[in-house]
Amino acid sequence: MERLAKQTATLSVLLFLACSGMQVDSHVNPEASLSGLTTYSWLLAADSAGSGAMLTNPLMRQRIISAADRELAAKGYQRVTADPDLLVALYAVSDRMVKPMKLCGDWGLYCSFEASQPVDLDYTQGTLVLAVAEADARTVAWMGWAQDAVDRTNPGKTAELVDEAVAKILADLPPRR
Predict the structure, then answer these.
(1) DSSP 8-state class, residue 80
(2) Which residues, including other chains, have CB under 8 Å from residue 104's CB and lie 6 or more apart?
(3) pLDDT single digits (tens) 74-129
(4) Each residue of 45-80: b (16+ CB within 10 Å) or e?
(5) Which residue, 92, 156, 101, 103, is CA-closest to 125?
(6) What does the alpha-carbon distance between residue 69 and residue 61 come to, in Å, rounded to a whole number?
(7) What span, in angstroms and rounded, lies between the C-alpha atoms of 146 and 130?
(8) How far apart are CA 68 and CA 88, in angstroms?
(9) Cα–Cα distance, 107 to 104 (Å, whole number)
(10) Residue 47's beta-bridge partner residues?
(11) What is the DSSP string of 84-109?
(12) pLDDT tens digits for 161-176?
């Protein structure tokens, strides 16, 4: 019976994570304008460094940058090494999350006594933020972010999630004009 309760708890965690989905949002600074700005460089100096496992991993950092470069190029922006119109900064962090949940009871279903006991859902939540600033004024013109559960034990799945997050974040960035 204890084994069934553990299997039910594991399945419930997986269902919770699968159903929660990626949350994506963005913000446009009404006082800034991307009009006429066509080139960009990455702001990777110490003043833009984030914390967390995603940025301390150079392969993950490069994956984020490469995915963003593809999306920005598709919107008509060009990456340059000198005198950019825009600066693009990234911040990524992953946090361990613990969410108390009463299995079955939270769903309004009847379960056996073992399965209805409180369980802590323990997962990692990743947050990726991309900010676009006017290079001359160093004013953030646009910022987008995504959050989702990350499976640290499956690097391939995490890489797919990063590509998806970057595409969804930058979908809201206005195209080059």
Answers:
(1) -
(2) 110, 111, 115, 116
(3) 999 999 999 999 999 988 877 776 777 665 555 555 555 555 566 666 666 778 89
(4) eeebebebbbbeeeebbebbbebbbebbeeeebebe
(5) 92
(6) 12
(7) 9
(8) 9
(9) 5
(10) none
(11) -SEEEEEEEEEEEEEEEEETTGGGT-
(12) 889 999 999 998 987 6
Do the beta carbons of residue 112 and residue 1 sit within 8 Å?
yes
User: Structure tokens of 137?
Assistant: 């004024």
Dig out the tokens for 3 from the structure: 């084994």
Q: Answer for the pair 93, 52: CB distance below 8 angstroms, yes or no.
A: yes
CA angle 40, 166, 157 (to 5 degrees): 140
By CB neighbour count within 10 A (0-12 exposed, 13-18 middle, 19+ buried), where does 88 fall? buried
